[in-house]
From TrEMBL:
CHCR repeats: 167-318
One Pfam family here: TPR_Vps41
Keywords: Protein transport, Transport
Keyword Transport applies: yes
GO BP: intracellular protein transport
Entry-linked PANTHER family: VACUOLAR PROTEIN SORTING VPS41, VACUOLAR PROTEIN SORTING-ASSOCIATED PROTEIN 41 HOMOLOG
Residues annotated as signal peptide: none
Protein name: Vacuolar protein sorting-associated protein 41-like protein
Keyword match Transport: yes
Length: 358
């Protein structure tokens, strides 16, 4: 019956009937593999060949693989993925795949997608032969995230610890997770040195360290990176941490004109008067200046704030409204004697007039 279908050229139908006809008989299966191969129709057998009960000789599976390699690369890739390497001679298939990847058949040119698929097949085949360095090299060349599964499964971190920047370029999150899990094998300082040309990757790595309450020794680097690439993290970091060089941090913030950060650093360094001047003259935030004086509770600061508000009636009014419990309003009024008339014109119903009418 199968022979009749083959003679009629109905190879797809014949392949579909083989399981019924051949059953567990290995020799019969191998006979028909040879028949299909001689007629250049062996690809029809790909989804029907048994892989156990019976398991055929390696040549039967290799026959299908070779046909797929030269005629249907997606099928070749799928078979390499699902067939166990015990079914065929891996070394022979590697040699054939390399030859094909070199585009040895001009009549069957390869697309970039085909070449990538062949490289993935080679990576799987090298893994089967425990040639991990070659498999890793191919996954790096392909920029393929599968490299992380390979590293985890076979504990290959030592083989890639000098290629951290390449792993980061494939997937920064997975690379950082790998680095954190293998911190005992590769110190954070070494990692940061390896990726020094990639500051955003440095920042991502530092973020993960800091989330784990580690990496405090790199606080100065974190400040520089946050100032350049992620300002919203900078002020919270400055508030939370203590072990950084305030002078260096202040210089960075001054260069970027990050006023809020400068105010905080000046306050922490003890130069509160300069911090107050920034709030008043740079930000024009009398409300923040009042809060700053409250936090520090320093008479000299209050006097400096009073002096700083004298040139602006609006600021004087804000100070009277917001700092009445901390400074003597009469002191403010005395210093503002040349401003009272202007205040009356602008704020005839304001708090100053209410005070004068008492």
């Amino acid at each position: 019956f199968i022979d009749q279908l083959i003679s009629e050229g109905r190879f797809a139908d014949a392949a579909g009937k083989l399981k019924t006809v051949c059953g567990p008989h290995k020799e019969l299966w191998e006979y028909y593999v040879n028949e299909f191969d001689q007629n250049h129709m062996v690809l029809h057998l790909a989804k029907y060949l048994p892989v156990k009960d019976p398991q055929l000789e390696p040549e039967s599976y290799q026959c299908v693989l070779i046909a797929a390699l030269y005629n249907h690369i997606p099928l070749f890739h799928r078979l390499i993925s699902v067939w166990k390497p015990e079914l065929y001679r891996v070394g022979a298939v590697i040699d054939m795949t390399i030859k094909r990847a070199l585009n040895d058949d001009p009549a069957r040119p390869l697309s970039n997608t085909d070449v990538a698929a062949l490289y993935r097949c080679l990576a799987k085949l090298y893994t089967c032969e425990k040639k991990y360095s070659k498999a890793l090299m191919l996954y790096i060349k392909l920029n393929d995230k599968s490299i992380f599964q390979l590293i985890d499964r076979y504990q290959l971190f030592d083989m890639v610890k000098n290629d951290i920047s390449l792993l980061m370029s494939i997937d920064a999150d997975l690379a950082i997770r790998l680095l954190i899990e293998n911190a005992s094998k590769l110190p954070a300082k070494t990692v940061l040195t390896q990726i020094s040309k990639y500051p955003k990757l440095q920042m991502a790595y530092l973020n993960r360290l800091l989330e784990r309450s580690e990496g405090d020794e790199f606080a100065d680097l974190a400040i520089r990176l946050y100032a350049e690439y992620d300002q919203k993290r900078l002020l919270p970091f400055l508030r939370k941490k203590q072990n950084y060089d305030i002078a260096k941090a202040l210089k960075i913030c001054e260069a970027k004109q990050y006023v809020n950060e400068m105010v905080f650093l000046l306050g922490r360094s003890g130069d509160r008067l300069k911090a107050l001047n920034l709030l008043v003259y740079k930000l024009s935030r009398i409300d923040l200046a009042i809060d700053f004086c409250r936090e520090n509770d320093d008479e000299d600061l209050w006097n400096a704030l009073i002096d700083a508000t004298m040139s602006d009636p609006t600021h004087i009014t804000q100070l009277l409204n917001g700092a009445g419990d901390y400074v003597d309003p009469l002191n403010i009024i005395t210093k503002a004697r040349f401003q009272i008339f202007r205040l009356y014109l602008f704020y005839c119903s304001g708090s100053l007039i209410r005070y004068l009418m008492k």
